[in-house]
Design goal:
Number of strands: 10
Strand order of the largest sheet: 5-4-3-6-7
Oligomer: single chain
Largest sheet: 5 strands, mixed
Radius of gyration: 20 Å
Strand content: 15-25%
Number of domains: 2
CATH topology of the largest domain: Glutaredoxin
Amino acid sequence: MLPAGPPLLHDPAPPFRARTTMGERALADYRGRWLLLFSHPADFTPVCTSEFVAFARAAGDFAARDCDLLALSVDSLFAHLAWVRCIREHFGVVVPFPIIEDPSMAIARAYGMIAPRTPDTAMVRAAFVIDPQGIIRAITWYPMTIGRSVGELLRLVAALQITDAHGVSTPEGWQPGEDVILPPPLTVQQAEQQERDATDWFYRTGTVPGIRRNNRRHA
């Protein structure tokens, strides 16, 4: 049974099994890979269409990071199929990821994708980054009138992966390949070494892997 109330960061993603434009899918099918699960208010709407074109064009970049894409709305499977066909005909883009139908709104409500005080059943633009263990690692919310940045969501996945792999953090606007924020010293020896290197203990940057120190200072 799907849990009540929206999940938060570090909660297990609510399980589901549903029909999609590419056959039946379950959350368990994505275990062992990263997953970006995102909702859209309705098919055949301009903002949603712009996002789906962008997601389709970036699908290879997500795949290169072992991250699958999975969309959802409360519209029917037949509406999804017609919309995907329209996108292909009008934009020359094939949508390469499944779109879940959720007419009962069970999945949408389990993930908190329908705002409780909304005047209708249209969903907000929610996106959940789910890690290979099925844990929610990031959540973004956008209103119906504002399109999301697909590039930012890809950056978010990349940042989560590098911080997990190397125990580092990422600064504002970080892009893959740029310096990261290194962990603070945990021993006297580490602190003394950083002092000899004239490195600020609270803000040290460097590259990964290998943790090559960078002496650039920031105001």
